[in-house]
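Troubleshooting log. The previous run stalled partway through. Resubmitting the same two chains, unchanged.
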Amino acid sequence: MEIEELTPTIEEMKRVLEGKIDESTLIEELNTYLNIYKVSLEAAKRGILRKYGGDSGFVTAESINKKIDALEGNEQNVDLLARVVFIEDREIQTKNGPRNISSGILGDDTGTVPFTSWESGKFQLEKGVTYLFKNLYAKTWNEKVQINLGSRAEVERKDDVNLGMPERTYSYSSHEAKVSELREGMSSVTVTGKILSVGPKEITSRGEKKTIYTGILADETGKVEFSAWEDFGLSDEEVIQVKNAYVRAWRGIPQLNIGDRSEISRVDDDFDDSMGIGESSIKSIGELIEVGGGLDITVLGCVVDLRAGSGLIKRCPECNRSVFNDECASHGRIVPVQDLRMKAVIDDGSGALTAIINRDISEALSGITLEEAVDMARSSLDSDAVSHRMEERIIGRWVKARGNAISDEYGLMLICREASLDQLDVKAEAEKLLKELEVMM
Amino acid sequence: MIRETAWRIFAGELNSSQLEMKGEEEKSPSYLITPLGAKVNRVLLAGVLMEKENIGSEEEPMWKARVQDPTGSFFINAGRYQPEASAALAQMEAPRFVAVVGKTKTFSPDDGRVFVSVRPERIVTVDEDARDRWVLEACQSTWTRMKALRSALAMDTPDENELVKKGMNPVLANGILEAIGYYGVSESSRYLRMLQDGLRMILPDQHIDLGLPGDDADLPDEIDIDPEKAGSDLDQEDLILSFLEILDTDGKGAPFADLQKEAEKEGIGAAQLEEVTNSLMDKGLVYEPVLGRLKKI
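Second attempt completed without errors. Output:
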């Protein structure tokens, strides 16, 4: 995507980010998301806002111009230049009596989208005519985007515009991606992998009970959680190719959605154990920040800080939340349970994340047991004595930590399942670098 | 707000940095652009704590410390806004291996010189293995920047977007372009020497020789300040006096060789240094307690 096309987006984001980012960095970020990771504009905007601390709720305050394939289904105010492919008038029942609406399909050179005009009398839309639609809003219904013309909508007839619509209106062109390449907002993606686990899950979608099938798919680059919205008869250990899937993210972790447009085929692929299928994937923290998160990730880095809330903490025996002053927000006055925890900032030179480390791992890493910590706090009369001791033991040490990486308003976190001090053969690595230098000289 | 990455960077490169990008808004971060294009706000460093001194009071300490890596020294300043680091420094004795996480700060007198120091968030004692691992990572990251700089210079017109398209980290691509714009083409032998010094420290048994041009490669290259710009003789005298203080670790005066090294980093060559010290001796501000040592009166 060319920078010129992005000018309205850049202006909009600058406004929302209120100087938290300068224009050149912003363009650089957009370029990275759009041209390197090839995510949709909407996802790129969300990603950048999350990274620089803007409030993505404000993004759509002013209308933005989009192509149909860029619609995310959550736009509050969007403009479309599109042709009415099909239209019909309908009468629906509302609590204020019957109402006339129009519905149909809009198309442009990138695809088609169903629409509803709630003020049917206001616009006399004709089939086959191109219009500039302004101030529309988009919603998602059954995993599909729908466009709505509400009371604020405006329509201008554009007879002189040639949209260059393709003959075939639905585009099934799908591009292949490895699991590690999946990014929030991707659509029509093809992934091949082995099902590590799968099972049915009852969900309630818009008041209706539905069974979906969720599990974990893995290739040699990593693992991803998937949700199949139809029963494809999937089973564990199967190697499948999924076509036309799309990617959404939960707390930054990309998730693969297999919808009713998706196709699944069983493949005779040689995913054997030697490829490390199902093993934790080692990632740079910089890459994780770019993606937003990941399932079963391993990072290697130096502990550069311990955050507040590390050390000896108290938890509510009912809900396990950490409490102050023996008082739980939900359960009132309680007799708290003592626990040990670390929130360690790990930095690998490409970025930093906060590793949330539970009691067992904290004990092993710091060499301080919960019992010792309780004694230490009691005898020193200093509530920070334990965390100070932990700092001495862990800051400046290199660790290897494994778990799920997620993003929230505090940035990237790793919920540790395992962590240990990392032993690297420094001499061997130095020799590798020396060889490379000698070749280049 | 995303946490700033802690760059692994040698003292030799960090201290040669002159270009600062100030944050435009009050809370936006400032960055120091190094000659190899690192865009630094925070650093992780490790080395030998050579000396520490409280130049504040007992009640309100202001610690100055020097940490040496294979390429030079980091200058550390910790005051009351760095409570953890100050408390840790108070209890440490030099020499020992330390690791420091901190923010880079610059001080520029009116004459255009830039002094780089580190304001530590954390300073901890580490073992030799940890120091070696840091040296390795600093070597790796220096080499990454050298390669990035090389590929940018290979373009007819170095272009940030093109570099990113080729897979370069966007932050690095931005820093590289800023560095080329400000410093021009840096002398790569200077940085190869840093790599050589780093690798020699990790692999002492291998006689590593990258075949670099003679020992004078240690001399400052074109990115260092041209003496014309380096301020008046009086400023240089002040600088030398402050070095004498720092380098006088045992009260017997500062070894002349150490002084020469420090002066060189500031762009003061041997001949010039002699002029300055002669002038200081003439003024009666310094004397030579034993041959090869210089002491402030």
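Takeaways: Chain B touches chain A through 50 residues (CB under 8 Å). Chain B has two domains: 1-223, 233-296.
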